[in-house]
Structure formats: C-alpha cells, structure tokens
Design a protein that fits this description.
The complex is a heterotrimer of chains A (about 525), B (about 250) and C (about 400). Chain B is α/β, with parallel strands linked by helices. Chain B has helices at about 45-50, 75-80, 100-115, 120-135, 150-165, 180-195, 210-215, 235-250; strands spanning about 1-10, 20-30, 35, 55-65, 70, 85, 95-100, 145, 170-175, 200-205, 220-225, 225-230. Classes of the chains: A alpha/beta (about 525), B alpha/beta (about 250), C alpha/beta (about 400). The complex binds adenosine-5'-diphosphate and magnesium ion. Adenosine-5'-diphosphate binds near residues 45 and 56 of chain B. Chain A: This is Cysteine desulfurase activator complex subunit SufB. Chain A: It comes from Hyphomonas jannaschiana VP2.
Chain lengths: ~525, ~250, ~400
C-alpha cells in the first residue's frame, strides 16, 4: 500500500492507513514468523483437547448438549434437526467436486481440556492466547487498548480510532470475549451462543432458527443438530453499537468438524458492524466446517457483516484443506432495515456459501460485496440470494472472482422479485478474472422477475489480466507478481472499499499471499 | 408568456426528496429571450424538468403558467402540445426508433391534441429537408435511431432540428452550447435566432457568455441555490465572465 | 406393452406411459432404442432438473391428447418460391421437384444422435419420429448456393407430432431455411440437426405460435466447421409450454454464430428460449441478443450458456444479452445467463435486464408531445425489433407479426 504520499489533500487517507498498518503489522509479523509456508495461519497449537465420541449419533448430540448444560428445549431442537438430517441428501448441484464425506469420521465436539468456560481472560490457556497473537488478533483487552492508543497518537486528527471487541472460537468453544463491560453499558449483548442460551434463553429461543430453519438444507440441518458454539449479538432499540464486534474462528484439533452458529439481532433503529475471521491449521485430512449465520434486522436497523475467510485451502495437490459449507442468511424483517454482506474468500479447499438477504420489510436494502480468490486446486461455488418480498426493496450485488492455478471459481446467485415487491430494484455486477489457462471461472445467475415495475440489471464479464497493463507496470519496474497484485487490487477495489478498515489491509495482504506462485 | 411565481420543488423519491427550487420567480414575456446562468448544481436543469413535467420532480409550492394556463398539472405531452419545448442537456438515446419516425409521430400527436390535421408525408419530408440543410445535418443521420451513436455535438444539433420541426411557442435550451465547436455553435445559434418571433419566448440556460454573443438575450438572470438572485441586462453576462459567480454574487448577498 | 418397457421410467405419468407405448409400436431399431433410453432415464424433464426448473414438462403434460379447442395458427411465413416440408401428427408432405444442389432422403430408420443425454426431448423426437407415413429421419444434403428457402411446417390437429430433420451443408454451401411451429397437436417434439462444413452459410428463421393447450419442444443441434456462418432468428409467442432450444458447437476455428430471439407472451402462454454454445475451437465468435415482452399471465424464460473448454477455447469472443419488458403486472420473466469458462484468453460478457420501459426514454418522447400510450408502443416495438434485425428477407414478416401483437 503506497497511498500515503504525505500530500495534504490525502490527510484523511493517511490517518486511515496508519491505523490500518498498526493492525496489519501484527498480521505481517505473524506471517513472517512462519516463513516457510504461504499460509501464515497454518500452525497448530499444542494443548490438551477434550473430544466428544467420534462420529454422529443421537448420543453425540446428547453429549454436546449436556457438555453445554443446555435446557431441554434446545436438546429436543437439536434432535429434531438430526432426525430430519438423516432423511436428507447431500446437495450436488454446486460446481464443486470432493470425495464423499464420511460423517462418522469426524469429531463433533472438541474443546480445550481445561473446560469451556473461563472466569476471566487470565484463565485462558497461554497457548491459546499465543495462537491468537500469532494470527494477529489481540485478545487481551489491555493489548487492544494499548494498540488503539498507539494508533491514536499517530493519527493526525482527533477522530476516534476504531476499537474491536473480539469473541474467539477455538475449535468448538468460545474462549473469550473482550470489551464485555463496555458493551454491557451500551446494552449490547455480545457473548458465545452457549452462554446466551443460559443467560438470555428467551431471546435466543425467540430468534434461533427463524432465518435459517432447521430443515433449510443439508448442511444447515446438520449444523442445527451439532452446533458447538458461536456468537450471539443483540443490539437493543436505537443503539448504535459503540465498536465493531468481531469473532475469530479457528479449527485446531484434528478431524474436527466445526459447526458454529451465529445469531445477530438488531432491534429497531439499531446498528452493528460485525467482522468474522477464520483460520485453520494445516492437516492432511479434509476438515469439515458447516456454519450457520442468522441475522435479523428489525425496523430501521442495520447490520454490516464482513468476513475474511482464510481457512486452510489444502496443499498444492489439493490435499487437506477445509470443506466450507456455510449457510448465511439475513432477514430484513422490519421496514427500512438494511443488511450488508461483505466477504473476502481466499481459503478452504471447497467453498459452498451464499450469504443471502430476505428483503421482507418495505424499503429494506440488501447488499452483497464479494471477492473470491481460488488458487491451487481450490473450488469455490459462492454467491448470494436476494429475495425481494417488500415494497421498494433494493439490492446490490458486486462480485469479483479471481481464479488461478488449477482452481474453479463459480458465482451462483439468485435475484427473486416476488409479486408483492412493488418497485423493487436490483443491480448486479459479476466480474471474473482468469490467471493462467488451467483454471475455470463461471457465472450462474438466476433472475426471477414477477413485477412489471421492477428494475433489474445484471452485467458480467470474464477476462484475463490485460497484457498491456502488465507490461506497462513491469516497464516501470514492478516485478511480475507485484504487477499482478497491483492489477488484482484494482480489479477488486470496489469491494475492498466496503470492508471496515481493520479488515481492508489484512484482506489485501491475503489476496497477495493467495495468488503467490500463480504467474510465471 | 411564461410566468413563474415563488416556485418550490423537490427532487427524488419520497424519503430522499431534496428541495432544489427554493421560491423562484421569473417572467419571460412573449418575444423576449432570457438567459439563465448559474453555478453547477444551482438547479437550472431541475427548473427545466419541473417546467416540462418529468416524474420524480415534485412541485411543492408556487405556480407556473404559460399564457395564463397552469402548466404544472399537465402531462408532459400536453405541455408539449401547448408549445413547451426542452432542448435536453443530455439528449436521450432511443434505439430502434429512427429520427424521422420519431419527429413525425411527435408532430402528429401534438397536432391531434390541439385538434389539428396531421401533416402530409410530402410536406413533412420537404420541411425536414429544408431544416436539415439549414443545420448542416446529413440526411442519412435522420434515418438512424434517435441519438444512438451520435456525437455530443450531433445530439445537440438534432435537438435544434426537432425544435425547428415542431415549432414550439416556448423554448428552453439547457446548455445546448456545451460540447459544440465554434462552427456548430454558430449553426445552432442561427437556428435558434431564426425561431425568434414576437409570439415566442425563450429561456437559454448556459454557462458561457460565448453563446450569448450569438443569441442576444433581453435579460440575464443568475440562478443560485434554487432561486433567481440577480437580474440584469446582457452586460451582466459579461461581468459574470470576468468576475465569476463569486465576484458578482458576493455583492448581491 | 411389455413390462420391461413400462419400467423404463420411474413413476411415469399418463403422458409418459403413452410415449412408452408409442415407442413400443415402432419397429425395432438399435439407434432408436438408444435415443429412447436417453429420454427415459429421466422421463419428461421437470422442475427439479437443472435447466428445466422454470419449464416443467412433466407438470404441463399429464396426458397426451388432442387439445379440446383445436386450431392451427396461420403461417405468416411466405411459401411462394420456397420448398415446403410439412409434418403433421399423421403425415408428411414434401416437394417433388428439387433444384440441383439439394438432395433429400426420407429414411425410415433413426440416425445416431450423439448428444442425446443433454437433450432429452430432442432424444425423444429422435426416438418417436417416423412410422408408416413419416420418415424416421429426413436427411438433406446441400451443395448449392443459390437455392430457394426450405420451409418446415409443424402443425395439424392431433395428439402428437414428432419429427427429425438433418441438414448437412457441404463446404461453401449456402442455405436459408424457416420453421413454423403452429400448434394443433397436444404435444410436438422436433429434433433439427444442422451441420455446416467449412465456409458454409446458413440462416434459420423460427416462427412459433400456438394456443393455450399445446406443448412444444423444438430442439436444434448445430455444428460449425471452419469459418462457417450460422444465423438464427426466433420469434416465439409461446403456448401452454413451449421450449425452443438450440445447442451450437463451434468445432473448428473461426466459426461465427448469431443467435437472436424475441418472445411475446400473452396470458396463458409460456415461451422458453434456451441456448448453449460450446466454443470447442479457437477464435470463434458468438453474438446473442434475446428480447422479450410479456403480458399479465404470460411467462418468458431465457436460459443462455457459453461453455468455453480449456485450451481449445482460446480467443473466444462471445457476447450474450437478454432484455425483457414486463408490460403488465402479473407478467413473469425468468432468466439464467450463464458462463462456464476454462480458457483464460477470452472475451466473454453477458447482460440481463428486466422490468419496465426506460423512464428517461419515456419522458423524452412525451416531452416531444407523443402521448404516453403511443410512446410505450413505439418504444416496445423498437425494443423487440432489435432482435429481429439479423433475420434477412423474413425480417419484415416477423416485425409485422410482432407489431400486430403489440397493438393487440
Ligand atoms: N434525481 C436526483 N436526485 C437527487 N438529487 C438530484 C437529482 N437530480 C438533481 N439533483 C441535485 O439537484 C441539484 C441541482 O441539479 P441541477 O438542476 O442538475 O443543477 P444545474 O444547475 O447544474 O443544472 C444538484 O445538487 C443535484 O445533485
Ligand atoms: Mg444542468
């Protein structure tokens, strides 16, 4: 990043970059500490782990539920999902291929041995804290504060530097949530979903499964049966969440499926920005990740959900890596509500993911901004669904796919205009970039219009990196990889701009790392 | 002729409506040419759309009459039949509809609304030929779809061609000079001047004195922040050119 | 019928049983059998099958019967000077005198159909075409250039009408054909195969019009050799269910395909325009423009796909546009413009719009004094006409049909 030229008119930009670099530096250091691999997050942590019995059965589910001291209704809910799942078939329509998954070969629950719950952050095993540090995620509140202060000093303006409250999920269990007190003051509930089940059972019961029903699809149903942990956020009426909320998911234990479940509810007029980061260590075996994320935005509420997904993609031959089968859906339940998904997807061996918006409230707005990068033998089938039900609902889809190596990258999206969705609007832009002649880039949009006064527009292009631009950059002295990175950055710019700044630089670095070795 | 009184108007759909015209008063008597100048975003184009009835522009107060008729309640085509013509700042492309077909349909629709007979095909072609020649428009161009693939200057000349064909009673030219080279500007101005008559009024919206050297206005108004803030003779345009809006408006406030 | 035949399709409905019975009555033929098996594997395609989601034959065709309200639409395509081949549910007529440069063979048996798995209803037509009065395969070989247009008509009251035509254009040959699907039969399925050898030029015009009771599946498979030029224009009004499917394979360098279509659907009419173009050779060009206008109770479906395989698809230049107008509330338009690309040095794009007429254009017209209704009619006609511009000599006929429908 070289935008910090020091000229006056860029002062704003400069402060931003300084703050970003503060955070970025950690990520970079973490990466440097592990020079040998491209994948900076591919280390595992030596800690004792407690597993559920291997495989999937009603007993497994009872075990998980008991471990979490769950109420009866939740156990029944899980069992109902499991029974349903047994009758379902794994979907095959996505353009991804993988060896059949043996669901009995996984552990459905893995927790650091010392127990799921920590009284205070000091009780969290040192190894776990170190792991997060390596990932560049400051967990200790003190550190976060220090980091912020440092950043604030360098910022020329008095503008408040952003702070991020972090909930960290290690394998199946949430280990720590920072900034809790301050959030409580604002009335924001931010905790692991297991805790929320205990502390706010009514709230959880009211919203859980109302966006992604138990029987929604194969992987979501599996998740409903075995979800281990995840994050719960509730922002009360009229509250603008005072900081960004963030969850880092990390798979550590071997042969573990991770099934986190996130539920975010924004009450009337509330606002929250939520960041999600994911990493996993390198393994030989493919690991399964089947998360469910449910968002509910009531009247005038706004939820911004950003993801940087960097699960282990497997080695060059596609061995190992994460199967990322995720169901993410937001419900714009109230009028004038807004849900915005932004994702940077660089990891996983196989990705199957369609963050969607149900635009139920009149005048509600859904957005999807995506960068999906595939390299090596990665396969990604990702996109969104915008379901327009309410009047004057608007949606916007910007998708940038980059394929390199021997990978396959598919955009699959649905825009559906219901009969009652007066004056609905959608704009979709889908661009694909191919780097090298052995990868694939695919675009599969489905557009269903049932309103004469709707206005739907879809554009898509597929091209390769321009030789002229590459040459131009190299003539000015950029190395080939650098030139590619520069052009790719230009290609994805529109989406990067949507990311909260803490994520933007990290995302940019990830793009570079993911595309290493893709040219020449 | 055209009388606008204390007009206020908003732009945009219900929730996002912004008030752009803020109590604008202006009168252009028959036979006169008035110029409107003003900084970017002042509301000049908005005024032209409000007067011609574009949807999305809502009048929230005041009045506008043409020869005593309230035009604000009329459909766009009714206003056109009454003689309102807008030369668009950004003429719209209409694929698949040839210029000749378009203008003839418009002319006959207007005549029908006014209870007049349709123009005969030979008369129409004759008239079209004459005007095209005057404007140095290639006959081939008139067979092509409206504005599709036309250069900026060609589009503006085509606006004037339509104006001369339809012989409106009141003309609004919204930045018709922008994008024209000096020769095209002269041609366009000649066309407009040929339209000057005691029964006709004109509102010429422009940024530059240049156009007003060719189309001599009777009065010059300065529009800023949605209202007329200064009115003067042709020399006002010269002063604006020399001192800029800030200089001239500085004293007005 | 034998139980073995009956078992071919899982959970058959009455229509599928009837199709099995018809197949059982035809003389034994290994190629016919392969084609029927390809169909029988899935039976009548339905909404759960990718590519048939919006056009469900199993639901639209519970039984095969003569429509209660029979009637054949008029054929607007001129036949004067053309060579007319007519397929009805019960018979087939063809011109006796053929000019030099065209050879016609009415073969009783089926010919092999390579891509039968991908085109189940094409396979069905291949399996059921023929019988006592009709050819199993009508084969036409073209060597000439200055030839009259061949006109294929599919119409006539009855239960079902099946036809299969193969045309091969030898190097440098030139031909224009037209096809009219005019309804009358409860179910019509045709398979048209066009093979263009090096430098051949071929123009195809398809006109489809039928009532609210007929079900149609018109499938075309096109293969293009080096430098071949294929042009197709379709005007479809739909029926209870109509699918006009075209699959083009560029199999040698420098071929060009133009695939345009317009669909106009009134209440109770469903028109499906489906195309798939495979860029199986370097530097081939495809241009595709589809326009639709739909009224209350009508449904338009557009599915387009460009498939560009690894290596051989380099330098592909392909563009696909689909624009639809929903003229009234209650209209439906479903679209799936798809790109599947495995070669990097390509220029591929698609665009899709659907909704109402452009508000700026409407205002511009009304500012000039054109009344709202008239402005709408003019814009709509111009909108549709764009897709008919490459038709050639039949453009005016198609335009007139579209105009009359819009003026309704
Ligand atoms: N459709 C619209 N929605 C919202 N604001 C608009 C719209 N059209 C114009 N505006 C705003 O109205 C103001 C006046 O615009 P305009 O009349 O075009 O100015 P000008 O004097 O340059 O012609 C500008 O601030 C512009 O941004
Ligand atoms: Mg303007």
């Amino acid at each position: 990043m070289d935008c910090c030229g020091g000229t006056d008119e860029h002062e704003d930009d400069c402060t931003e970059v300084t703050v970003k670099e503060g955070i970025d530096a950690k990520t970079v250091e973490a990466a440097k500490a592990l020079e040998s691999e491209n994948y900076s997050a591919g280390f595992s942590t030596e800690i004792e782990t407690e597993y559920s019995p291997k495989g999937l059965s009603e007993d497994t589910i009872r075990f998980i539920s008991a471990k979490k001291e769950e109420p009866e209704w939740l156990l029944e809910w899980r069992l109902a999902a499991y029974r349903r799942w047994l009758t379902m078939e794994e979907p095959t329509w996505a353009k991804v291929r993988y060896d059949p998954i043996d669901y009995q070969e996984y552990y459905y629950y893995a927790a650091p041995k010392s127990g799921a719950k920590y009284e205070s952050i000091d009780d969290v095993p040192k190894e776990i804290l170190e792991t997060y540090e390596k990932l560049g995620i400051p967990l200790r509140e003190a550190e976060v504060l220090l980091g912020v202060e440092g950043a604030a000093e360098t910022a020329a303006t008095a503008r408040e530097a952003p702070r991020v409250a972090v909930d960290a999920v290690f394998d199946s269990v949430s280990v720590a949530t920072t900034f809790r007190k301050e959030l409580e003051k604002a009335g924001v509930i931010f905790m692991s979903i297991s805790e929320a089940v205990r502390e706010y059972p009514e709230l959880v019961k009211k919203y859980l499964g109302t966006v992604v029903p138990q029987s929604d699809n194969y992987f979501a149903t599996l998740n409903s049966a075995v979800f281990s942990d995840g994050t719960f956020v509730y922002v009360p009426k009229g509250v603008r969440c005072p900081m960004e909320l963030s969850t880092y998911f990390r798979m550590n234990a071997e042969n573990t499926g991770q099934f986190e479940r996130t539920l975010i509810v924004c009450d009337e007029g509330a606002y929250v920005s939520y960041l999600e980061g994911c990493t996993a260590p390198m393994r030989d075996e493919n690991q399964l990740h089947a998360a469910v994320v449910e968002l509910v935005a009531l009247d005038d509420a706004e939820i911004k959900y950003s993801t940087v997904q960097n699960w282990w993609p497997g080695d060059e031959d596609g061995k190992g890596g994460i199967y990322n089968f995720v169901t993410k859906r937001g419900d714009c339940r109230g009028p004038r509500s807004k849900i915005s998904w932004t994702q940077v997807e660089t990891g996983s061996a196989v990705t199957w993911k369609y963050p969607s918006c149900i635009l139920r409230g009149d005048d509600s707005v859904g957005e999807f901004y995506s960068i999906a990068v595939t390299n090596g033998r990665q396969q990604a089938d990702t996109g969104t669904k915008m379901i327009h039900l309410g009047k004057r609902t608007k949606s916007r889809i910007i998708s940038k796919g980059i394929s390199a190596g021997k990978s396959d990258n598919t955009y699959r999206g649905l825009v559906s205009i219901n009969k009652r969705a007066e004056k609905a609007r959608n704009f979709t832009q889908c661009d694909s970039l191919l780097i090298g002649g052995r990868c694939g880039a695919h675009t599969v949009p489905y557009v269903e219009n049932r309103r004469a006064d709707a206005q739907l527009e879809h554009e898509a292009t597929t091209t390769k990196l321009s030789e002229d631009q590459l040459f131009y950059a190299r003539q000015r002295g950029l190395g080939e990889e650098q030139a590619v990175a520069l052009l790719v950055n230009g290609f994805v710019r529109e989406v990067l701009q949507e990311l909260p700044m803490e994520f933007a630089v990290e995302a940019q670095k990830l793009l570079e790392v993911s595309l290493e070795g893709s040219v020449g | 002729m055209l009388k606008i009184e204390n007009l206020t108007a908003t732009v945009g759909e219900a929730e996002e409506a912004k008030q752009i015209i803020n109590g604008l008063t202006l009168e252009v008597p028959a036979g006169e040419v008035h110029a409107i100048m003003g900084p970017n975003g002042a509301g000049k184009s908005t005024l032209s759309y409000v007067l011609t009835g574009r949807s999305g522009y809502e009048v929230t107060g005041g009045s506008a009459t043409l020869n005593g008729d309230d035009i604000l309640e009329m459909d766009p085509e009714e206003r056109a039949a009454k003689g309102m013509f807008l030369s668009f700042q950004y003429p719209v492309e209409i694929p698949g509809v040839p210029v000749m077909t378009f203008v003839r349909t418009a002319m006959n629709s207007q005549r029908k609304l006014r209870g007049e007979d349709e123009i005969s095909a030979p008369d129409f072609i004759k008239k079209s030929r004459e005007i095209a020649k005057q404007l140095k428009l290639d006959a081939e161009m008139l067979k092509r779809p409206v504005n599709v693939g036309f250069s900026g200057g060609e589009k503006k000349r085509l606006e004037i061609y339509q104006m001369m064909m339809l012989e409106p009673r009141f003309l609004i030219l919204d930045e018709t000079d922008s994008g024209l080279d000096i020769d095209a500007l002269k041609t366009v101005a000649e066309g407009v001047n040929a339209m000057r008559s005691p029964e006709r009024g004109m509102l010429v919206i422009t940024h530059y004195q240049r156009l007003l050297d060719y189309i001599k206005p009777d009065k010059v108004h300065v529009l800023a922040a949605g209202r007329i803030v200064k009115t003067g003779g042709p020399d006002l345009a010269h002063r604006l050119e020399a001192e800029g809006y800030d200089g001239v408006l500085g004293e007005a406030v | 019928m034998t139980t073995a035949l009956r078992d071919l399709i899982a959970n058959p409905n009455a229509a599928e049983l009837e199709l099995i019975a018809r197949y059982g009555m035809l003389p034994e033929d290994a190629r016919r059998e392969r084609a029927f098996e390809a169909f029988a594997k899935g039976g009548l395609p339905h909404r759960r099958v990718e590519g048939w989601h919006w056009t469900d034959f199993k639901a639209a065709l519970p039984v095969i019967e003569t429509p209660a309200e029979t009637g054949v639409a008029a054929d607007p395509l001129p036949t004067e000077g053309a060579l007319v081949f007519s397929f009805t549910p019960t018979g087939f007529t063809w011109p006796e005198d053929l000019p030099e440069g065209i050879r016609v063979l009415a073969k009783p048996e089926a010919q092999a159909f390579g891509a039968s798995e991908d085109m189940p209803l094409g396979a069905l037509a291949a399996a059921l075409a023929g019988g006592k009065t009709k050819p199993g395969t009508l084969m036409i070989e073209v060597t000439g250039q200055d030839l009259p247009r061949l006109h294929f008509r599919f119409s006539g009251d009855g239960e079902a009408n099946f036809a299969r035509v193969q045309i091969i254009l030898r190097p440098g040959a030139k031909l224009a054909i037209s096809e009219s699907y005019l309804g009358g039969a409860g179910f019509t399925a045709s398979l048209m195969e066009y093979s263009l050898q090096a430098g051949a030029e071929f123009s195809r015009t398809v006109y489809q019009r039928a009532g609210k009771a007929e079900v149609l599946a018109a499938t075309a498979a096109v293969q293009l050799d080096e430098g071949a030029d294929y042009r197709q224009t379709t005007l479809a009004f739909g029926s209870k269910l109509s699918r006009l499917e075209t699959r083009v394979t560029h199999q040698e360098t420098g071929a060009k395909a133009t695939l345009n279509a317009a669909y106009l659907c009134a209440a109770g009419h469903h028109a499906d325009i489906t195309t798939e173009v495979r860029h199986g050779a370097p530097a081939c060009v495809t241009r595709q423009l589809t326009k639709g206008a739909v009224l209350d109770g009508g449904r338009g479906v557009y599915q387009g796909k460009f498939f560009v395989p690894r290596n051989v698809g380099q330098k592909t230049d392909a563009d696909m546009q689909h624009n639809a107008l929903l003229l009234e509330e209650g209209a439906e338009v479903f679209a799936k413009p798809e790109l599947e690309i495995y070669a990097d040095d390509v220029e591929c794009a698609h665009g899709n719009t659907s909704g109402a007429l452009d508000a700026n254009q409407m205002f511009y017209m009304r500012q000039r004094g054109i009344a709202e209704e008239e402005a709408r009619a003019l814009l709509t006609e111009a909108f549709i006409a764009e897709a008919l511009e490459e038709t050639g000599e039949l453009e005016d006929v198609l335009r007139e049909q579209a105009r009359a429908w819009l003026a309704r």
